[in-house]
Design a protein that fits this description.
Structural class: alpha/beta
Function: Catalyzes the ATP-dependent dehydration of threonylcarbamoyladenosine at position 37 (t(6)A37) to form cyclic t(6)A37 (ct(6)A37) in tRNAs that read codons beginning with adenine.
Shape: elongated
Keywords: ATP-binding, Ligase, Membrane, Mitochondrion, Mitochondrion outer membrane, Nucleotide-binding, Transmembrane, Transmembrane helix
Largest sheet: 7 strands, mixed
InterPro entries: ThiF/MoeB/HesA (IPR045886), ThiF_NAD_FAD-bd (IPR000594), Ubiquitin-activating_enz (IPR035985)
Strand content: 5-15%
CATH architecture of the largest domain: 3-Layer(aba) Sandwich
GO molecular function: ATP binding; tRNA threonylcarbamoyladenosine dehydratase; ubiquitin-like modifier activating enzyme activity
Low-confidence stretches: 1-27, 42-68, 312-324
Pfam families: ThiF
Strand order of the largest sheet: 3-2-1-4-5-7-6
Number of strands: 12
Order of helices and strands: HHHHHEHEHEHEHEEHEHHHEHEEEEHHH
Number of domains: 3
Radius of gyration: 30 Å
Amino acid sequence: MMASWFSKATTATTNLVTSSANHHRPQNNQAQLVTVAVVSGVVVGTAILGMQKALRMYKLTEYGGASGWFASAEDKRSIELAARARKGDYDDELILEQLARNRVFLTDEGLESLRSSFVVVVGCGGVGSHAIAALARSGVSKLRLIDFDQVTLSSLNRHAVATLADVGTPKVHCIRRRLEQVTPWTHFECRNELFGEDTADSQLAPMDGQEPDFVIDAIDNIDSKVALLNYCYKNKIPVISSMGAGCKSDPTKLFIGDISASTDDPLSKSTRRRLRALGVKQGIPVVFSTEKPGPGKAELLPLPEEEYAKGSVTDLSVLPDFRVRILPVLGTMPAIFGLAVANHVILELTGYPHDYLPAKSRDKMYDGILGALQGFEERLAKHNGFDAQGLRIPLTPEDVGYLVEEVYHGRSVISGLATRLCLVRWHRPSEDFIDKRTPGQKNSLLQMNELVCMTKEEAVKHEKKVLMGRKAPEDLYDRRVVDAVNRKMLEEEAFSRYR
């Protein structure tokens, strides 16, 4: 496209200059050169401005964009029918016939609850589009769609309703236009916007006086995702979140459970940690996969070296701070995630019974690790001449779970073993590691980024030689272990700023 622009600009410049020279023929060469320079500058400048305007208009062309969308006769009829149906000019018996299978499954009362509900879906890509399609086909009457992005060619391997004709159009309008042909009575409110903390009040506001009955998070940007979930949690708006479907391929590993139990997914991990820093530790249902990476499985692809050589790779992102690497996605998995999300919302809104298979819960293990840590601190206090009776440590079982699962991935940093785990200080503390300023109360000043995960046997040895002995960790462990611990502590310190 750019080559075409320059070719046309060059041709136009040549023709115009030749014409100017032939018609006006200045009396001296200097005047002729000035004229040619001025005319060339105007033409080239106009061509450049035109090219820039075109690039803005066709910004996504190289990546699958299109010049626009033109309504066919069928599209126009669908639009007109949907407009009449939303005003009530559509036989309710026809709607009930279309929803007949849902009606006998959910009962009349359940279907009525679904038909009178208002659901907000944030993120209208592979996951969100399938959730929206399922909700509309099941009878949800009010849907607010929020997404800043456009349909691209690469979207078509996983999007629920987009076609080639939709490439280059906003995802929210693509979904509305296609689903109006299926459920013309549905009220779609489309917001071609990026969700953010500053706009949450408006984006999750009532629709026609009705508060959202449910919110679906199908966002893959961590900042927007955390902002949405935190807002819903703090404002008591029912919400369900989809974790990452990228690089996943095993549908049998899919779970619906509390966010505190989700594992084996980088997006889930980052979301949990950021929410925990905001005081949200549990109470948000999520759809997640426990599938682990392995040999031969897809991974997040790095950018080609030639892209780095061109300069700032952030120029490749759609918006500032958005990922620019390629996330491999098997087209079926976002659909499975989206349908699982929609299924949960339907069951919740209709009151249909649902007891999900629980994901792993290791609360008893965390309690045991916390008790062992209490013992380590009490022995350390006695060793340093303190009265350890009634000593308190500033950690909870949730903190223990966070350190064990999120920071150390359920394994000893020394040996990599995953059994008989405990937490213990890495360095010998300073002499004033007990706070006795409050009368009758003794508190350990232990910080989370001072702890490492080991097996019980390793911790006993570490306690004897480092915490109560004269050795430094660097004297006891090889460089690999020391470097691994330093990385973990820096990682935890970086996340501590969110607390």
